[in-house]
């Protein structure tokens, strides 16, 4: 029978598990909010407090036992310097260019690196005999003693400040550089030098000595640079002088060969005036060619007009520019043609008048026509003469143009050759002038500055000498404590994140709510061991009140029949289901109801021992068909509360609980009692609770804070949901009063409650 019911419930079980898996996946993939982090840190604040406390104690110990070290500080200024010892930058235009700022930064950084160099460190160590000081002699911890034992030949010899072997030198340099700090100050030419030492006087002495060593090192470097620059410059001046003299001689020779003569005067732009016969001839040839070409064009135009034989066009040339360009004969002929054309026009006008007035038969008409014909003949003769003259004039002009073109080409070749020589001459002369100017400037600078001026210059200026410090710089107690506190909080926070990531148990109310499970209530933890009936012992305690709230929730389900059979179970043992069952039953009795507390956990029963019930009769014997007399006990201190213990432990409890006798028994008990509270076994180890949830009106799953895992909660709830008549409710148990989980459920912190003695106590 149970098997058939289980088959029918398989689809529901699969659906419930699928929905639960989806909810659990959504819960795990949801983004962590600031509120979640705050709750996490508040819940595990003990980790933060403990880690911070340990780190803070270590920081205090470091401050107490560390050696006091004093810091001396000196400041120097780095002046601008030239690249050599003779201050030749002004000759090359280096001064005032945009690269000055970059060069200054490079110079300052260079001086800072020199201050941190091994050369200056060794000079200071040797001069101050720092190897004899305890700081340089001592080696740290057991390793130093071991080294002295293994290498007695090196460490047993007394320190020699003049000559050091490689091992001692490296050790001394390491100690020196560890205590030295060189820092260029941004935006200035200042460099700050700091040195730490247990001896305040030694710290100031080292800084001042290091500054002096830097000054000496700069002096030596500049001396060598000046000496090398002087020698090199002398050689370059000799070479430059020889080259300048050679260029001047070459310029004179090129001037003689080019045929260009200097007049000795300058024009408005300050350029030297010069004369060249070749260029003068080329200019005249160009002018002659231009005139010949213009004359040829005019003669050709006249020749073409005459060749056309058009007297009208030829007469129009008289008096204009084109007509005046011809010879005197052509000009006279043009005037004659113009005159004849005027006479012809006058006679033609008279002839037309006579024909109109007298008719064509008039005797004088023939005479006038003869005169007009004679004039026209004369015009044609003049046109012919003009054509011959224009042809001769054009041939003469063309030959003249060709001669001028040939002369121009010859002069152009000579001018081009002269131009190439002139360009080379100008380049050579400019090079000679530049070489001479550079030689004169270098010679003048060398005479003015001299070598001593370069030797006396020093770019290092002491701004602040190092004074003997009065207070130790290390250990920096506020900084060490602040760093210890910050590091402790960081480690504590990391520990909280790691612990919370690895911990899969239920830690707060939000974990249940985010899983989509109905939360019926939160039960506080009470500390009285062995007092299972807290409702009887302390009816006004917080635990008692929360159980009463749970009772109200279970009995007032909206749109549902009153809950008479209530099943109390949990996912695993030890979550407090038996304690809740006994106290919940007691609260129903306080309402005046008749209540039966039924012990269904036949494997690990607890009610008989808690109540001190005698005998072995109980539920198992009733289901086995044995006598039911004296199986139900009345509670001695609470009338209305009856107890049905487990009875003797059977071999197969599940078969008894899923039998028809169990169903019939519950049906009979419903008639006798108002409320039946069943204390069922855990869900995951055995199947008893799943079977009983089908028979109960409402099922409550107890979850213990910090004990029940999310996986166990979800699996147990899925199994119960597949069998229960109503949704399975969750009760979060053993929540510490004052914890975040307790207050988050109620939504506020200021909660006043009364104790059984009547005194107020606040949370």
pLDDT < 50 runs, ≥5 residues: 1-17, 90-95, 140-148, 153-157, 754-763
Q: How many separate helices?
A: 27
Mean pLDDT, to the nearest integer, reads: 76
Secondary structure: helix percent: 55-70%
Secondary-structure-based class equals alpha/beta
Distance between the termini: 53 Å
What is the rounded Rg?
62 Å
* Morphology call: elongated
In order across it, which strands form the biggest sheet? Answer: 7-14-13-8-12-9-11-10
- Count the beta strands: 16
**Percentage beta strand:** 5-15%
Main beta-sheet annotation: 8 strands, mixed
Question: Any chance you could write out the topology, listing elements then pairs?
Answer:
Layout: H1 2-29, H2 34-43, H3 45-65, E1 70-78, H4 100-115, H5 118-128, H6 134-137, H7 141-150, H8 152-155, H9 166-179, E2 180-184, E3 190-197, H10 200-258, E4 261-266, E5 272-275, H11 277-307, H12 311-317, H13 321-324, H14 328-358, H15 363-456, E6 460-464, H16 477-502, H17 509-514, E7 519-524, H18 534-537, H19 542-555, E8 565-570, H20 577-590, E9 595-599, H21 607-611, H22 619-623, E10 633-634, E11 641-644, H23 653-657, H24 660-672, E12 675-679, H25 688-695, E13 698-704, H26 710-723, E14 729-735, H27 740-746, E15 752-754, E16 760-762
Parallel strand pairs: 7-14, 8-12, 8-13, 9-11, 9-12, 13-14
Antiparallel strand pairs: 1-3, 1-6, 2-3, 4-5, 10-11, 15-16
Helix pairs in contact: 1-26, 3-16, 5-9, 5-10, 10-15, 11-15, 12-14, 14-15, 19-20, 25-26
């Amino acid at each position: 029978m149970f098997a058939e019911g289980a088959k029918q419930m398989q689809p529901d079980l699969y659906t419930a598990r699928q929905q639960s898996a989806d909810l659990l996946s959504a819960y795990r993939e949801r983004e962590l909010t600031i509120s979640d982090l705050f709750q996490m840190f508040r819940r595990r604040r003990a980790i933060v407090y403990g880690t911070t406390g340990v780190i803070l104690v270590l920081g205090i110990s470091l401050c107490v036992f560390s050696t006091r070290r004093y810091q001396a500080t000196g400041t120097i200024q780095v002046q601008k310097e030239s690249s050599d010892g003779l201050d030749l930058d002004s000759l090359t235009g280096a001064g005032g260019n945009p690269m000055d700022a970059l060069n200054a930064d490079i110079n300052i950084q260079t001086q800072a690196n020199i201050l941190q160099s091994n050369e200056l460190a060794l000079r200071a160590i040797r001069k101050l005999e720092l190897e004899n000081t305890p700081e340089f002699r001592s080696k740290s911890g057991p390793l130093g003693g071991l080294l002295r034992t293994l290498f007695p030949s090196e460490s047993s010899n007394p320190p020699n400040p003049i000559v050091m072997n490689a091992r001692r030198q490296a050790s001394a340099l390491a100690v020196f550089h560890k205590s030295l700090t060189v820092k260029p100050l941004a935006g200035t030419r200042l460099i700050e030098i700091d040195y730490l030492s247990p001896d305040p006087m030694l710290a100031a002495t080292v800084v001042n000595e290091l500054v002096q060593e830097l000054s000496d090192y700069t002096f030596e470097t500049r001396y060598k640079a000046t000496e090398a620059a002087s020698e090199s410059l002398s050689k370059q001046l000799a070479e430059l002088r020889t080259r300048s003299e050679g260029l001047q001689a070459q310029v004179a020779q090129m001037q003689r060969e080019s045929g260009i003569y200097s007049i000795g005067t300058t024009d408005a732009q300050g350029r030297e005036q010069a004369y060249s016969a070749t260029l003068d001839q080329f200019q005249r040839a160009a002018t002659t060619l231009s005139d010949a070409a213009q004359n040829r064009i005019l003669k050709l135009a006249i020749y073409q007009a005459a060749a056309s034989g058009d007297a009208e066009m030829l007469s129009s040339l008289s008096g204009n520019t084109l007509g005046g360009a011809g010879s005197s004969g052509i000009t006279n002929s043009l005037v004659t043609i113009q005159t004849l054309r005027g006479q012809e026009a006058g006679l033609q006008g008279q002839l037309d008048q006579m024909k109109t007035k007298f008719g064509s038969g008039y005797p004088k008409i023939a005479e006038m026509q003869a005169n007009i014909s004679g004039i026209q003949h004369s015009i044609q003769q003049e046109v012919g003469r003009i054509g011959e003259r224009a042809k001769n004039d054009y041939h003469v002009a063309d030959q003249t143009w060709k001669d001028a073109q040939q002369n121009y080409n010859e002069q152009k070749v000579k001018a081009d050759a002269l131009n190439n020589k002139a360009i080379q001459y100008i380049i050579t002369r400019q090079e000679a002038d530049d070489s001479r100017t550079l030689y004169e400037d270098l010679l003048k600078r060398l005479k003015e500055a001299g070598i001593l001026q370069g030797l006396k210059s020093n770019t290092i200026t002491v701004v602040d000498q190092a004074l003997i410090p009065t207070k130790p710089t290390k250990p920096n107690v506020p900084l060490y404590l602040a760093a210890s506190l910050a590091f402790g909080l960081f480690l504590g926070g990391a520990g909280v994140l790691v612990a919370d990531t690895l911990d899969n148990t239920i830690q707060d109310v939000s974990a249940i709510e985010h899983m989509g499970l109905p939360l019926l209530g939160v039960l506080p933890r009470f500390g009285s061991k062995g007092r299972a009936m807290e409702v009887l012992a302390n009816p006004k305690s917080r635990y008692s009140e929360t159980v009463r709230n749970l009772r109200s929730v279970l009995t007032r389900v909206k749109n549902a029949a009153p809950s008479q059979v209530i099943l109390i179970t949990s996912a695993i043992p030890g979550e407090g289901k038996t304690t809740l069952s006994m106290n919940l039953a007691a609260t129903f009795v306080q309402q005046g109801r008749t209540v039966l507390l039924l012990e269904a956990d036949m494997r690990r029963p607890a009610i008989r021992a808690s109540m001190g019930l005698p005998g072995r009769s109980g539920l198992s014997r009733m289901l086995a068909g044995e006598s039911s007399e004296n199986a139900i006990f009345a509670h001695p201190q609470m009338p209305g509360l009856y107890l049905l213990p487990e009875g003797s432990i059977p071999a197969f409890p599940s078969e008894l609980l899923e039998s028809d006798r169990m169903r019939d028994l519950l049906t009979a008990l419903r008639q006798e009692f108002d409320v039946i509270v069943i204390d069922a076994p855990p869900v995951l180890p055995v199947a008893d609770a799943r079977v009983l949830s089908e028979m109960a009106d409402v099922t409550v799953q107890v979850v213990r804070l910090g004990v029940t895992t999310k996986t166990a909660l979800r699996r147990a709830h899925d199994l119960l949901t597949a069998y229960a008549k109503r949704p399975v409710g969750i009760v979060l148990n053993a929540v510490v009063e004052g914890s975040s989980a307790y207050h988050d459920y109620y939504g506020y912190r200021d909660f006043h409650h009364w104790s059984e003695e009547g005194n107020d106590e606040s949370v």
